[in-house]
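Protein of interest.
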Amino acid sequence: MDLVQITAALQKFSGADLTTTLARIEAELRGVSTNECATVLSMAKVEREALSAAGALKRIAGQVNVAIHALGILLCLPHILEPGEVVEYVSLGAGNTGRDFDLETNYRVAEFKFIRWRGGAESIRQNSIFKDFFLLAESASEKRKYLYVLDTTFPLKFLNAGRALSSVLSKDKRVRDQFHAKFGDQFQRVREYFLAHRDKVTVADVSAWVPELIADDVDE
């Protein structure tokens, strides 16, 4: 199924509003017996084509974040590179595929996080930002180190805040072990580590170069 077919099949089932449609079907099924069930489902346009379309869309959606990451990096490159700077490698896929960072040039190493922060409880995003900052800060590279984000407001607010490092590192054993092997219990809070290492990494805003990612109708 192509996207046009997928959209049509899902639209046929969901109607103008999926939540309203589901509520209607729930009401219509109340009290329905086995003899009536197939008829009710048919009238509600519950068809295998719609399920197939939803499955296909889910598979496509699984690639969206990878595409955003890759396109974001590529569109930022012309703005980042300085005269005389040469790309040594760029890692565009999911993860860094064996490379240390998203980008390395003869001048810098860099990680990109195209996350739209909302300012609420965003622990998974915070964990990811801290991991990138930590790996950049502790890299043996003598090149300039950059963490590129969409608006620095919330990332810097988090890095200057008091969330416990035990919480931030709890989901990533590799990084947790690396952190404790180097620092033991020296740092207890995110801000303690950040304030001691903030001069090692530049946290920079790239939203002006990829405004499509901060539009009201776009989410990460």
In short: Strands lie at 87-90, 103-105, 108-113, 144-149, 202-205. The two ends are 25 Å apart (CA to CA). The mean pLDDT is 90.
